[in-house]
């Protein structure tokens, strides 16, 4: 078992539905400590960061609301808790959603269209340049599209002219799934964000 000092960041990974186990694997490979969040009590743990995985955004929204987790995590994100949202996680973070709406965190000032890249059969892999990390693999699975971003939102990567990775303060939103690829670049970038936050 890899040694993880107590000083390593503790990352809460939302584990109500979706690809949370893959994120845990990636984060632990970078020496982070992880705890899976399933209840409102879990959300009050002294985590240094939060990961919102891909999956079914409407199902995740319902489970978050029913469990009382949504309000607690929204408040913590609003107070500056670093958060990584991938695919469905990006949708949950988005302030505006095209083509319908449901309860979300709404803390990331972007407009997102759900499933804009097509159905499961239209999933694809590509490579794109991610700010500071060079070319990284990107896997899109029923992916949302960021169709607009606020003026204070930084675009970190683009594919076909659309942002696929954005940052707003301590919030990192991705349209793709870094947890299913071999590259540690995205999780390493996020953990660097977390370390900066912990040093403040």
Can you walk me through this structure?
With 200 residues, the protein is of the alpha/beta class. 26% of the residues lie in helices and 32% in strands. Helix 1 links the parallel strand 1 (10-14) and strand 2 (33-37). The longest helix is centred in the last third of the chain and has 15 residues, at 185-199. It is globular and about 40 Å long.
What layout of secondary structure does this protein have?
Elements: E1 10-14, H1 20-29, E2 33-37, E3 49-52, H2 57-67, H3 69-78, E4 83-86, H4 88-93, E5 94-98, E6 108-113, E7 124-130, E8 134-140, E9 145-149, E10 154-159, E11 162-168, E12 171-174, H5 185-199
Parallel strand pairs: 1-2, 1-3, 3-4, 4-12, 5-6
Antiparallel strand pairs: 6-9, 7-8, 10-11, 11-12
What is the N-to-C order of secondary-structure elements (H for helix, E for strand)? EHEEHHEHEEEEEEEEH
CATH class: Alpha Beta
> What's the rounded overall pLDDT mean?
92
CATH superfamily membership, which one? Class I glutamine amidotransferase (GATase) domain
**Percent of residues in beta strands?**
25-35%
Q: In the CATH classification, which architecture applies?
A: 3-Layer(aba) Sandwich
Count of DSSP helices?
5
């Amino acid at each position: 078992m890899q040694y993880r000092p107590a000083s390593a960041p503790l990352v809460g990974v939302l584990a109500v539905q979706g690809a949370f186990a893959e994120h845990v694997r990636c984060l632990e490979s970078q020496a982070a400590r992880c705890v899976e969040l399933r209840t409102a009590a879990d959300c009050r743990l002294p985590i240094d960061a939060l990961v919102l995985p891909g999956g079914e955004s409407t199902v995740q929204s319902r489970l978050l609301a029913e469990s009382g987790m949504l309000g607690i995590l929204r408040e913590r994100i609003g107070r500056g808790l670093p958060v990584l949202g991938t695919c469905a996680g990006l949708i949950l973070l988005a302030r505006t959603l095209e083509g319908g709406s449901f309860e979300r965190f709404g803390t990331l000032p972007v407009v997102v269209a759900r499933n804009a890249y097509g159905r499961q059969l239209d999933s694809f892999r590509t490579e794109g340049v991610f700010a500071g990390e060079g070319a990284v693999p990107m896997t899109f699975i029923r992916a949302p599209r960021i169709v607009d971003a606020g003026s204070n939102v930084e675009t970190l990567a683009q594919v076909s002219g659309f942002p696929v990775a954005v940052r707003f303060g301590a919030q990192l939103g991705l349209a793709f799934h870094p947890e299913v690829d071999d590259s540690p670049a995205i999780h390493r970038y996020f953990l660097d964000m977390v370390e900066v936050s912990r040093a403040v």
